[in-house]
Amino acid sequence: MNIDKHIVITALEAEFGNQIIICNQLTADDTPTLWIGKSNLIVVLNYLKNVIAFPYKMLYDLTCLDERARTGRNGQPGSEFTVVYLLSSFERNQDIRIKVPLYINDLNLQSITSLWKSANWYEREVYDMFGVIFNGHPRLTRILMPKSWQGHPLRKDHSTRATELDPYVLTENLRAVEESDLTFNPEEYGMGRSSDDSDFMFLNLGPQHPGTHGLLRLILQLHGEDIVDVVPDIGFHHRGAEKMGERQSWHTYIPYTDRIDYLGGVMNNLAYLLSVEKLAGIEVPERANVIRIMMSELFRIASHLVWLGTFAQDLGQLSPVFYTFSDRERIFDIVGAITGARMHPSWFRIGGVAHDLPDGWDKLMQEFVSYLPKRLKEFENMIIKNAIFKARTVGIGVYTTEEAIEWGITGSGLRATGFDWDYRKKRPYSGIDQFDFDIPLGKNGDCYDRAVVRMEEMRQSLRIIQQCIDQMPAGEYKSDHPLAIPPRKDKTMTDIETLITHFVGVSWGPVIPQGEAMVPIEAAKGSNGYYLISDGSTSSYRTRIRTPSFPHMQMLPLISKGYTIPDLLAILGAMDFVLADMDR
Amino acid sequence: MKEALNIAGVLFIALTIAAGLIWVERRLLSVWQDRLGPNRVGPFGLFQVIADTIKLFFKEDWVPSFSDRPVFIMAPGILIITILLTFAVIPFGPDFIVFDSNIGILFFLGNSSLGVYSIVLGGWASNNKYSLIGAMRASAQMLTYEVFMGLSLMGVVMMADSFSFNAIVEAQKGGWFIVPQFIGFIVFFIAGLAETHRLPFDIPESEGELVAGYHSEYSGMKFGMFFVGEYLGITLISALIATLFFGGWLGPSFLPPVFWFLLKTFFFICMFILLRASLPRPRYDQLMKFGWKVLLPLSLGNILITGAVLIFFK
Question: Are A444 and A555 members of one domain?
Fold first, then answer.
């Protein structure tokens, strides 16, 4: 579908009149960004989702910014807080960003949970972080911060560092409060304690539990072993990554991104840097692009290997986790040889990568690419084709394409329903459209299909890496754009302008031009994107990290009702989430 | 005097094997999982067993305040006692048996039914939801599998014309029962897996779902008893398979009969461990379905055919 991006504006004005759009803001990523008054929000969103031709079916992201300290807003309405909705249309292959201005003395807004159920957690997060009240929200409580937290952390007047606060003392009193905050009251969630003929059992699964892969708490309402309902309680892994983005310079934030999806390594760098480079208008040299793609695909395989081993482990198979982890070690050996680090290389830089590939990289990489297919075949026979594995996963945790889109599911979970959507193909970045690879699809949208799709994705990633080895272009590994950091040094000793740029770039960090941008990429777990706002300083004004695990976990109650506890573990395993990716 | 020696011998062998299995299992699993396993303490890491035992003894023996104390303490004991009692009727050699009962098989089946109490009571007394779920699963699973565990042995009993283990071994002098009773062997092996709740049938424990199932709250030597009890169970089932289907202590005379018996037992112990290394865990209801819909008809059919053939040739 090839529709002009901005034609949606004409459609909106035709439907609602000229006054509907307060401001049509220009952004670096060229996504139509429209300001709408808060009274019109529901009708406009409803129109975009349900009425317009080629509708925007997915609520890709919902966030907020505290604009009170922002400079250089270039004609935007003078709001103090702005709620931002990012909608995605698959038929158009386009996004639209809707902004609603709010003021501190009237910080409330109509909830859109009636339009998108997936807005539930996002609105809770905005409430938690900014204190915006959403009228009509079914249960507006804190989601990431503890109940007892004072203030709203992402507001500009909230402290950035713990050292700005008084020392933390856990008194007996405070501990009692914290403990009682964690007590689960079914009535709060509108759950009954008993049905007509029996009492329910409420089982607290986590935060410490071998099946949750980290600090995740699930409260199960059980009838025997059948799951009546699930309430996920998240936030135990929350580290304030978005707040840190406002303190770190554009360059020094790169290592923080590695720790978001901590299995994805440099793939996180890529999502962040694509947005930064979009803001700065940096063209990345071809060689740097190919290196980036090669390393990202390598990390996709590493991430999928961890998933495969732990998924088998969740289903009671003891051994595969050792095989997949030892193959992942081989990946880390290569990553170590190229970048000097293993899990979190933080190796990509603004404008390219940290250094050129070392001599002999191609031999290491080729060895691995020739070695892995045989192992994947083994894993397939050992795990995927195992009759018990099939019995545990086929027909479990099923959802349709429509449900997936409604709930914001991306990545393998979406493709397992048979919907052909991969950001690498549909919105190619870093020149990935130059490569020859296929997008594996499932059919039934159950745990088994998700597993099969990921197995095949590893093979396709190997194909991409093979092409990188064969056709690695010569050239620069980093752009010589003045904002590429650290700047190239070869001319600094002869050229005073370059010397000044280098000095400023290294001592302050680069000053990224004012603007807003987001570039979604196809990360290992789903679609990951950094919504960055620069007000023209050395650090980001707002860093919003849209991660796939967050909406995926939100869908858990829907897809696990009616199954049993062992099935829940299969569903969790097949979901492939990372706690840090969820809580940030 | 001879009886006292037999008792001491059987106890020594059973307990040594069970304890040694801690090491054997960990090393074998490591071999199959491309890693080293415990190899630091003593030659080949053999003293790991001693180190583990000392550790278990010195751990705080915590009884949860919310538990049903007497039952909680009693439960692990029941497990060890019922299994050790069964070893009394198993012939380690022609004269190496504590009590040559003429109802040996019934004695074993009775004891293994009593063993279920250990798990159900342990899970119940822990007063923990995970333990409770584990215990409920255990009782259902054991109940199902006891039924055709008994039925699967009836073919052997018919062929040997006796419930005594020694008589069954003697009856295999012409040929091991594994050939005519192959179906009986398969069913008994699977039922034995379920009985010892080992992977793939470790549904009462299933650490990925229920943390540790019925023994989540156990620590110190009480946990150690469940732990060793599991290995005793494996040893017992392996010894039974060797006795009932593979000629027990029978074997060429260049080695003593006890040795043949232990060799065969050890082979099946390794099979148990190999299964654990390779298979995922079915769901609880799938296991029950498999039991009632596949194994039960299979063992009944086996009895029918064995009986018919025996009558035909008489």
Answer: yes
Q: Return the higher-pLDDT residue of A501 and B299.
A: B299
Backbone angles phi, psi at A539, to 5 degrees: -135, 165
Last residue of a domain, one of A145, A163, A181: A163
The residue-averaged pLDDT of A411-435 equals: 88
Angstrom distance (rounded) from CA A53 to CA A50: 9
CATH number at residue A344: 1.10.645.10
Kindly state the tokens that stand for A164.
Answer: 């700005």
Q: Are residues A159 and A247 in the same domain?
A: no
> Which two tokens mark A171?
């008194």
Beta partners for residue A83, in sequence order: A64, A100
The answer, yes or no, to whether residue B188 has pLDDT greater than 70, is yes
Look at residues B59, B16, B217 and name the one whose alpha carbon lies nearest to residue B125: B217
**Do you know the residue count of chain B?**
314
Q: What is the pLDDT of residue A328?
A: 92
Q: Does the CB of A184 have a partner CB in chain B at under 8 Å?
A: no
**Among A208, A388, A448, the residue to mutate for chain B (most B Cβ within 10 A):** A388
* Token code pair at residue A546: 């849209």
Residue A559's identity, in one-letter code, is: I
User: Residue A1 has what pLDDT?
Assistant: 47
State residue A199's pLDDT score.
Answer: 81
Q: Are A243 and A160 in contact (CB under 8 A)?
A: yes
Contact A70, A4 (CB under 8 A): no
Structure tokens at A22: 């307060």
Contact status of A569 with chain B (Cβ, < 8 Å): yes
Give yes or no: residues A282 and A156 share one domain: no
Contacts of B34 in chain A (CB under 8 A): 322-323, 326
Q: What is the pLDDT of residues A311-340, one digit of tens each?
A: 988 888 888 899 999 999 999 999 999 998
Provide the mean pLDDT of chain A.
87
Q: Which residues contact A37 (CB under 8 A, 6 or more apart)?
A: A22, A100, A101
Do B129 and A203 lie within an 8 Å CB cutoff?
yes
Q: Which two tokens stand for residue A26?
A: 């220009």
HSE, side-chain direction, 13 A CA sphere, residue A553 = 24
Pick left, alpha or beta for residue B220 (phi over 0 → left; psi -120 to 50 → alpha; otherwise beta): left
List Cα–Cα distances, A47 to A8, A44, A93, B108, in angstroms. Answer: 11, 5, 18, 73
Pairing state between β A217-223 and A81-89: unpaired
- Is A318 an interface residue toward B (CB < 8 Å)? yes
Q: Which of A132, A163, A194 is the last residue of a domain?
A: A163
Whether B284 and chain A come into contact, CB under 8 Å, resolves to yes
pLDDT tens for A175-206 read 998 888 888 887 777 777 777 777 888 888 87
Average pLDDT over residues A379-407: 89
pLDDT computed for residue B15 by the predictor: 83
From chain A, pick out residues whose CB is under 8 angstroms from the CB of B32.
Answer: 319
Structure tokens at B27: 């090393």
Enter the tokens of residue B225.
């008893």
Domain containing A54 equals 7-163
| DSSP character at residue B213 | G
The confidence score (pLDDT) of residue A160 equals 84
**Torsion sign, CA atoms A56, A58, A60, A61:** positive
Q: In this structure, how many other beta carbons lie within 10 angstroms of the beta carbon of residue A498?
A: 18
In a domain, A223, yes or no: no
Q: What domain count does chain A have?
A: 2
What does the pLDDT look like over A20-54, one tens digit per residue? 777 777 787 888 888 888 888 888 888 888 888 88
Helices (H), A315-418: 320-339, 361-379, 387-393, 401-406, 412-415
Angle at A286 between CA A284 and CA A290, to 5 degrees: 105
Tell me the pLDDT tens digit for each residue of A58-111: 899 999 988 888 887 777 888 889 999 999 888 888 888 989 988 888 888 889
Q: Which two tokens stand for residue A418?
A: 């048979």
- Band of the pLDDT at A2, cuts 50, 70, 90? low
